[in-house]
Write a structure and sequence with these properties.
The protein is an alpha/beta fold and 388 residues long. It is 33% helix and 10% strand.
């Protein structure tokens, strides 16, 4: 078989100048093409919106309905609604504790995060007992609360108020500074609890500090002396308010980082009582005097965090003694005693924009939460005679 001879290949070599011209010529072509594409995209994007709007307005085309977004995952919802602390007496309650459509209570940035435990009254009987009580507090405690003035009027520390020495109110030999130092030595913040008007001891010695019979100035008692009637500290008395201010100032000077005022109540007056007492005791705006007294205590606390403890059930029912005048309350926050999370939600809703600090957790290892949740009544078991 005869093969046809192939022709000879001829290679042409470009000069250096020709190669450079060809290089830049190809680059300019690529650049020009890219620039043209960019210009077309820009013009199309700029003109597309107005044109599309024009066509929609003329109903030439219809706008495509937006696709529904995916529902937020339960995990992300939980993270977004997680409270700032675990539900005990913490400084800023989470918005998630409120029902849908409820405005969250305003938060006071000056309030620290708190896990407050309250010591028993007996813990202040001596320095040794106080140390033992502090040792028993749970590891997550940040604050330890002690009751300086309890319901009834007893003072559980060695006050330096001279007038008090004439009463039987003082039941402890521990100075307030010593109590604070012992708490701080355990790495905790000291909290003082002062019961304001459930006081039967101070007005027993100083009758002008209690309720008096109009006209005669005679001391009013909540029952006959034969039945153990007691006087009550009165918010209408300047002497009583001055006493509470002095106690608050003493607690702040001793070093307590938080002061809590409780016991904002009026005695259960009868109709006959109201006819004998100062007319202000039976007026609808009598709560004004309670709020005035609390605000005076708050001023005496100076820069110390000052909280007011209220009964959550009374707030829900709308009959808390100071509820009608809460907008004038200057306290840094409100502590609520409640039975359940639902009660907390209802009470927080009733408080509106006031800051509330829930107290829901039960006592642990012998220590009590600062504001104890009330014990629910035991369920009544049906008798054997009742039908199921």
């Amino acid at each position: 078989m005869k093969f046809k001879p192939k022709g000879r290949k001829i290679y042409r070599y470009q000069t250096r100048g020709e190669r450079i011209k060809a290089f830049f010529k190809s680059r300019r072509a690529v650049f020009a093409t890219a620039l043209g594409i960019v210009c077309l995209v820009f013009v199309g994007y700029s003109a597309g919106g107005p044109v599309l709007k024009f066509l929609e307005e003329r109903e030439i085309i219809t706008q495509k309905p937006p696709e529904s977004s995916k529902a937020e995952s339960p995990a992300s919802q939980t993270d977004a609604q997680a409270p700032s602390a675990s539900g005990e007496s913490t400084a800023a309650p989470a918005d998630s504790s409120l029902p849908e459509g409820t405005d969250a209570p305003a938060q006071n940035e000056n309030l620290p995060d708190m896990h407050i435990y309250q010591l028993e009254l007996s813990a202040l009987s001596s320095g040794k007992v106080l140390q033992e009580a502090l040792e028993d507090l749970p590891a997550d405690a940040t604050h330890a609360a002690v009751t300086l003035k309890s319901a009834g009027g007893s003072l559980h520390y060695a006050t330096e108020i001279e007038d008090v020495s004439r009463t039987s109110a003082v039941v402890s030999v521990l100075p307030a500074e010593t109590i604070c130092a012992a708490i701080e030595a355990k790495g905790l913040e000291p909290v003082a609890v002062i019961n304001a008007f459930e006081d039967h001891l101070y007005p027993k010695t100083f009758s002008a500090a209690g309720y008096q019979i109009a006209g005669s100035g005679e001391r009013w008692l909540d029952d006959s002396p034969e039945n153990g009637g007691k006087p009550w500290l009165s918010p209408f008395s300047a002497i009583a308010v001055d006493y509470l201010e002095t106690l608050t100032d003493e607690a702040a000077d001793a070093g307590f980082s938080v002061i809590v005022c409780e016991g904002l109540v009026f005695p259960d007056f009868s109709e006959e009582d109201l006819t004998m007492l100062d007319p202000r005791a039976g007026t609808p705006d009598r709560s004004t005097f309670l709020v005035n007294a609390v605000n005076a205590m708050h001023a005496a606390a100076d820069e110390t965090c000052f909280l007011v403890a209220l009964d959550g059930e009374e707030i829900i029912r709308g009959n808390a003694p100071i509820q009608s005048d809460l907008e004038r309350l200057t306290a840094d926050g409100i502590l609520l005693t409640v039975d359940s999370q639902n009660d907390l939600e209802d009470a927080a809703d009733a408080l509106g924009s006031m800051l509330c600090i829930p107290a829901l957790e039960e006592a642990g290892d012998g220590a009590q939460w600062f504001v104890r949740a009330k014990e629910a009544p035991a369920p009544t078991e049906p008798s054997s005679s009742q039908e199921p």
